[in-house]
Amino acid sequence: MTIEAGRNSHPIHFIGAFATGGLLTFMVHLNGELARYGNPLFSSWTAHGTGMIAAVILLLAMYRRRTPMAGKTARAPLWAYLGGVSGAATVILTSTAVNSPLGLSGTLALGLAGQVAFSLAADRWGLFGLPKRRPDLRDIAALGLVVTGGALIILFGRGGA
Question: Of 88, 20, 21, which is closest to residue 49 (Cα–Cα)?
Answer without folding.
Answer: 88
